[in-house]
Amino acid sequence: MLAPPSPVTVEIIVNGTPRRACVEPRTTLVDFLREHLGLTGTHIGCEHGICGACSVLLEGEPVRACCLFALQVEGLSVTTVEGLAPARGELSRLQNAFCEAHALQCGYCTPGMLIACHDLLARNPRPSEEEIREAIGGNLCRCTGYQQIVDAVKLASGQEAAHG
Amino acid sequence: MAKFGLSQPLRRIEDPRLLKGGGRYTDDIALPGAAHGHVLRSPHAAARIRSVDTAAALRVPGVLAVITAKEWREEGLGEIPCIIPLKNRDGSERASTPRGALAEDRVRHVGDPVAFIVAETPKAAKDAAEAVVVDYEVLPSVTDLDAAHRPGAPPVWDHVPNNIAFDWEAGDRAKADALFAQAAHVTRLTVVNNRVVVASMEVRAAAAEYDAGEGKFTLYAGTQGSWLVKNLLAESVFRLPPEKFRVVTPDVGGGFGMKLYLYAEYALVCMAARRLGRPVKWTSERTEAFLSDTHGRDNITLGELALDKDGKFLALRTRNYANMGAYLSTFAPFIPTGAGTKVLASVYDFQAIHAHVLGVLTNTVPVDAYRGAGRPESNYLVERLIDTAARELGMDRIELRRRNMVPRSAMPYVTAIGQRYDSGDFAAVLDAALRKADWAGFPARRAESARRGRRRGIGLAYYLEATGGSPTERAEIRFAPDGMVEVLVGTQSTGQGHETAYAMLTSHELGIPIDRIRVVQGDSDVIPTGGGTGGARSLYSEGQAILATTATVIEKGKQAASEHLEAAVADIEFTPQGGRFSVVGTDRGVGILDLARIQRERAAKGEPATLLDAAEVAEIRAHTFPNGCHIAEVEVDPDTGLVGIARYIVVDDVGHAINPLIVRGQVHGGVAQGIGQAVHERTAYDPESGQLLSASFMDYALPRAEDLPDIEVELIEVPCETNPLGVKGAGEAGAVGSPPAVMNALVDALSDDGVRHLDMPATPEAVWKAIHGAKAA
Fold first, then answer.
1. B746 and B762 Cβ atoms separated by less than 8 Å
2. Residue in A69, A147, A160 to test binding to B, most B beta-carbons within 10 Å
3. Less crowded by CB within 10 Å, the N or C end of chain B?
4. Cis, peptide link before residue B43, omega less than 30° from 0
5. DSSP symbols for B369-435
6. CB–CB of A82 and B20 under 8 A?
7. How many CB atoms lie within 10 A of CB B302?
8. Tens digit of pLDDT for each residue in B315-369?
9. Is residue A14 less than 8 Å (CB to CB) from chain B?
């Protein structure tokens, strides 16, 4: 049995603040966020990049935090669900729309969904239904059937949502 | 019908914290000093364990303990039980499949737990698991339901002949047989209800700590009700008084039936916490979840429908083989028997029904309740049978249903299988659905699809489900010192929005603003009893408990107001709108929150004062019968076999909808799961090795956003007559109606290709083969 590798210090800018922790080199970004920084809003759904629950923004681009080592993003900027709201106690326009359209039930996939939709709206302020479904196609939700998430994105982009 | 404050699409109270990453799920709980557990699982479907050598694993740096069945037995621990007694047709008891948390001499499915390794970190525990040496003698296995009960199949348990764990019946066999003998037409159909992996997005997890001084365990786990888990840990595993266990359920990321049970890992973290004197945590990995969470469905059922010359149903006979997996799970034998057969009549008038159910053991993950639990299976069979009968008789499938539906005027109506329906207007719901779907305009849509080279089909299913669960439920209302009103409940939300629904109800009854209400759930030390959530029972059960409790609060409030206002109790009245107690005929009064505060302050000073806090247990005397009509339109690409859902319409009668926003969400989610079962989700075992081939999200197809249509939902409220809220339950309904609607549509789409039936899941391969195979034949 190999001895565990020596810990390394990793610094990542998380939600605008440099954060540092001493971790095993094999620590994934999602474990770094959850276990070492206590940012448990980012969830683990499958550990192999298929469900999207662990999505975060890396330098503004959505990535799967379960498929990256913390070491790989040393010095880079990461935004998690905790960093999406404009201010403490407030919700972003997108978060508000999720609430309005009932786009979440158990809330487990929600942080990843928000990251995917946030990214979509940054690239495409008025997406069509097809574009929304494509954008969240890499995020699994077992509760909603997705339509209310589609509706939320439409609401957030100032478009009328579909029927209930 | 609408009551003040109810029937509103109120935004959910729980959303803001979940949207900001503030949800607190089991794995988010970091107990100080916690060690981490990893389960070593069987790589074989069937094997004898010759020996387990843990010496090397114990030498791995950071390892604290390696627990096997030997340690389990040394501590005198008991069983992870099945709690459903069942009598066979011959009067004998069902087979038993006893198991501790860890396999002792035999493993019976891939994923069966063999050892629990505890270490300083999850990674160290996983490293050490690789160093445990288990000497297996591999045995022949059987995973396929149809093969397992045949003579000569490998025995899953040596004492269970033909792997038949139970052989059960219900209904009137003699009467049904007599009606079949005189029938003008009999339709026979065998349907497969495919095995489904539940796959809540949050995997299971558990953390336990042990207080040696008090001899008390605290378990944190994502359950569907802490009390069942607590009681089974106490009675069946540790054989200690229940007060030695506190079970806390935090936020739960989806359950769908699968999180109801006491699982081996929950007992193991408790056991390890006591042995090590420090907290122990375990979190499932996704593939582990595929191999250890209970699965759903997995039935093969022969249905026979007898009709007279006018197309009137006479009798229904079923013979259902239900795959139980390798062990009988907590509720498993109840699902295809009591739970499933009670809705065999659905919304139709039969003179007799007979159901025969055989529970079959296989070398697979145990099967238990999954959204609908038996009722989707029965509805699927009945609705496929009716479409098949209509085709055989050359009758319109709508007309055949209409001719046999129980009319509203017949309510209350007792079915041929003995259920008493209190309410329902099936014909009105059917008509509304046909209108909404523009059923009459379908031929034009079919022609348009055909011009694009696509086969379009339309299908309808009328479903009826019977809710169920614990026969009592408790609520408690406390006026807390911080000014909030706490509502303590015995159900457990796993995403359904209970906090919102219960707050709305309490607000409506007591006139307290919603933002002053805090719903408390899941902690068995704070809430003494609870029936948990399952069988779509929560609102009608907990709702009745809340109503009983608010009534007591008002009674106590009148007493308190009489003390405070110095008037006779008989002269005090309560106005829910505004939440005010007042002296009749005067302007003297006091608000309920002020009164509660005043009384609490008086009591604190030692003055006599009636407090407003109250708790009640409601007896749930009758279950409810949500029902509705689903219409699906599918479009098939004959070149690829790909099935697209082009339109989806639901008209539901779930009784009074307290929060229509939440009801729609429940229906959408249920329909999505049903579409998943019908066309995407295939649970595949390798017949030779018994390996679960679809054990990850790369291999098991959960529906994604691009796979699902817009789902149009309309609610027709026919109030339930057996509870004061008039509610029927909406949690399971979507998953009950959708598989038959989709499959009826698919068979309709392929009818010109000669397809008469297709089993789920209708994957592209299966559909392509059906089209091209039927043509060749």
1. yes
2. A147
3. C
4. no
5. --TTTTHHHHHHHHHHHHHHHHHHHT--HHHHHHHHBPPGGG-SEE-TTS-EE----HHHHHHHHHH
6. yes
7. 15
8. 999 999 999 999 999 999 999 999 999 999 999 999 999 999 999 999 999 999 9
9. no
Q: State phi, psi for A7 to the nearest 5 degrees.
A: -65, 155
Percent of chain B with pLDDT over 70: 99
| pLDDT tens digits for range B214-251 | 999 999 999 999 999 999 999 999 999 999 999 999 99
Question: Do the Cβ atoms of B21 and A100 come within 8 Å?
Answer: no
Query: pLDDT averaged over chain B?
Result: 97
Cβ separation B20–A85 shorter than 8 A: yes
- Ranges of beta strands (E only) in B9-124 are 35-41, 47-53, 63-67, 106-107, 113-119
Does domain B299-468+623-776 match CATH 3.40.50.2300?
Answer: no
List, in sequence order, the alpha helices (H) in B524-680: 538-565, 592-604, 660-675
Instruction: Give chain B positions within 8 Å (CB) of A82.
Output: 20-21
Global confidence as pTM = 0.97
Q: Is it the case that residue A1 has pLDDT exceeding 80? A: no
Decide if B253 touches A, using CB distance below 8 A: yes
Residue ranges of chain B that CATH labels 3.30.365.10: 299-468+623-776, 469-619
A4 contacts in chain B (CB < 8 Å): 61-62, 123-124, 127
Q: Determine contact, residues B542/B562, Cβ cutoff 8 Å.
A: no
**Residues facing B652 on adjacent strands:** B628, B715
Q: Could you tell me if A46 and A66 are in contact, meaning their C-beta atoms sit under 8 angstroms apart? A: yes
Least confident range from A154-163, B40-49, B555-564: namely A154-163
What is the residue type of B192?
A: V
> Tokens 């209302």 belong to which residue?
B477
Largest distance between two CA atoms of chain A: 60
Give B700→chain A minimum CA distance, Å: 11
The answer, for B56 touching chain A at a CB cutoff of 8 Å, is yes
pLDDT band at residue B6 using 50, 70 and 90 as cut-offs: confident
Partnered with residue B488 across adjacent β-strands are B476, B520
Angle of CA points B367, B369, B370, to nearest 5°: 100
- Could you tell me which of B622, B625, B620, B621 has the C-alpha nearest to residue B421? B625
pLDDT in tens, B33-63: 999 999 999 999 999 999 999 999 999 999 9
Backbone φ, ψ for residue B84 (5° rounding): -105, 110
Q: Select from B711, B731, B707, B729 the least CA-distant residue to B651.
A: B711
pLDDT of residue B8: 86
Q: Any idea which architecture B469-619 has in CATH?
A: 2-Layer Sandwich (3.30)
Strand-pair partners of B209: B218
How close does chain A come to B528, measured CA to CA in Å? Answer: 25
Give the whole-angstrom CA distance, residue B587 versus residue B571.
12
In sequence order, the 6+-apart residues with CB closer than 8 A to the CB of B410 are B349
Q: What CATH number is given for A8-84 in this structure?
A: 3.10.20.30
**B26-139+201-254+259-292 has which CATH code?**
3.90.1170.50
With a CB cutoff of 8 Å and minimum separation 6, the contacts of A111 are A41, A42, A43, A53, A55, A80, A81, B21
Taking only the tens place, the pLDDT of each residue in B266-293 is 999 999 999 999 999 999 999 999 999 9
Of B251, B253, B261, which is closest to residue B227 (Cα–Cα)?
B261
Helix A147-156 vs helix A110-123: angle between axes, to the nearest 10 degrees? 40
SS3 B581: strand
Domain boundaries, chain A: 8-84, 93-156
| From-to residues of CATH 3.90.1170.50 in chain B | 26-139+201-254+259-292
Fold of A93-156: DNA polymerase; domain 1 (1.10.150)
